[in-house]
Amino acid sequence: MATAAELLRAHTFETRDKNVPRPCVQRGTLVKVGIRGERFWCRVGRVREDGSLLATVDNDLTRSPWRRGDEIVLQRSHVLEASEPWDVLTFSGLLAALGSASEAAMVWRDLRGLEAAKPRPRSWFVLP
Length: 128
Prior knowledge:
This protein is an alpha+beta fold. It folds into 2 domains: 4-84, Roll (SH3 type barrels); 86-119, no CATH class. 24% of the residues lie in helices and 22% in strands. The chain is built from 3 helices and 5 strands; from the N terminus they run H-E-E-E-E-E-H-H. A hairpin with a 2-residue loop joins strand 1 (30-35) and strand 2. Helix 2 crosses helix 3 (101-112). The model has no long low-confidence stretch (mean pLDDT 83).
């Protein structure tokens, strides 16, 4: 049986490893966050005065009630990685060259190297 601390941890956002540099986050930045063993992207709509982030979920989630378009509030420590709007150009070029969104996503992730959040053990990558 799970302890109260384990249950709480399972239902709160992952926090970024303190040894990983903090990504620059501003309005329009895509941020990857994780909760309930599921990682997903959100677009930052606003940075509040207290530093928290108002973000829009960019995926339909399977382990959480949120759907694409829902707004959530995040702390900067919840940001596992970030992607700026100009990264779309890199991804678009990979997609054109490879012809597969799945392959382009995996190559783009590898190109990001240290900027990308490390996958958790037994991760599944769900791609369009």
